[in-house]
Amino acid sequence: MRATNSLAALFLSIAVWVATDTFGQSDEQPNILLIVSDDQGYNDLGLLNGDIITPNLDRLAKEGTRLTSFYVAWPACTPSRGAFLSGRYPQRNGIYDMIRNEAPDYGYKYDPETYAITWERIGGMDVREILIPEVLKSEGYYSGIFGKWDLGISKRFLPLAKGFNEFYGLVNTGIDYYTHERYGVHSMYRNNERTEEDKGAYATYLFEREALRFLDERKQDEPFFLYVPFNAPHVSSALDPKIRGTVQAPPEFEAMYPAVETAYQLGTRYGEETLVPTREKRKRDFRAATTCMDASIGKILDTLDRKGLVDNTIVIFFADNGGGGPADNGALRGGKGDTWEGGVRVLSIVRWPDGGIPAGVENNAFLTGMELLPSLAAATGAQLPEGVVLDGYNWWPTLRGEAESPRQDMFWKRRGLRGARVGDWKWVDMGEGRGGLFNLAEDIGESRDLSKTRPDMLARLQRRFDEWYQETMIEAEPRGPFKDF
């Protein structure tokens, strides 16, 4: 929300949006399928880019609406996920940085006793935060998550403590796709317990398996929320220098792309010279893993078809942040970790026939992941959490073409990096003199800095950023784990 909005206005507006929104042909509560990819680029879609194979996401885009101006709240994993699940800025919900150990980046492998007392093991999202499945539970929704969690490992932070009925997946930022270890620490859980039951099996297939089982076990009169956050195509979190830095993919999907001439080259890892993957190999691996994920998405969509659930199931797909490394962000500048468009504007698709969402169109409305919670509450009749300040809006009238987007602004802060979008104007501060002022309506690639010709607009966006930061970070009710209170 805009920092200048009063809380009273905020709650009144949300109440009006929820109360006045109506939905189409079915009297049944809609099912919800939320699919999130990891580090997929803005242009990593077969419809847009002939170098990558994604027939099932292409199909989803043809059957739904592709959102071309959709943003996440942080340009990397953990804070982005916390924001779209809570409907609140990272600075407001307390997860405004990563919950991970940095030592493995330097080749360190933890023993179990040492790992048990590390930040990655004990950190997590503030237990007072209310997430989507908790909101839906009041309307009888059965919720499952199969894939990447990344909001805390201790039981009080795991999905079952946040409204989910089932969980199978990795608990932190990344894994080796086969061993399921994050730099030597096994990271796969079933519900509240660590498990090695599927060690050696490719992770994408496991999340597909669990999602299909979940769908097949649902009763006809039991609405569901199925959240499938794939770890693909995130790079593998393996200590092996030949694997780290690239993405593991099954051979049959590797074979769908041209062979690389040189797979490895001399490089430095952990301070020593060793063989590391070439950029050519990394790009091929990335695309192969994305195509494998796409095939799993296709099987999930096919199951909805088989069970007659297509029309009354909301399907939402997007990437958790902009693509990095071998990803393709198209015309967008920058990538993962940046407050440039390439770090925060992401690929997104929404399909819901019964909700009146048009098929095969692009919608350039300014929208974000924080819209999910209020929008799903509106679609299901669920009550929004009482007394909680939300930063998201109900997007359904906008997606149906009935109204302009209620979102007027968006702000980002990643450590020393800052960014603000107000209307079509974007201010970026990447530190060390990098950044500027850009008109996205005319310059989506942020190539023409207008700071000197429009100092008035620059001052306006910087002022709005300061107001937002004061409201969400300084004055808001404090949340952990990073804030001292």
In short:
Helix 1 crosses helix 12 (372-380) and helix 8 packs parallel to helix 10 (279-306).
Chain-averaged pLDDT: 94
The number of helical segments is 14
Task: Give the total of domains.
Answer: 1
Instruction: Name the poorly predicted regions.
Output: 1-20
Give the CATH architecture.
3-Layer(aba) Sandwich
Radius of gyration: 21 Å
Q: CATH homologous superfamily - what is it?
A: Alkaline Phosphatase, subunit A
Which topology does CATH recognise?
A: Alkaline Phosphatase, subunit A
Lateral strand order in the biggest sheet: 9-8-5-4-10-1-13-14-2-15
Q: What is the CATH class name?
A: Alpha Beta
Percentage beta strand: 15-25%
**Helix fraction bin:** 25-40%
Biggest sheet character: 10 strands, mixed
Number of strands: 20
The multimeric state of the shown protein is single chain
Through-space gap between termini: 24 Å
Instruction: Describe the global form.
Output: globular
Tell me the structural class. Answer: alpha/beta
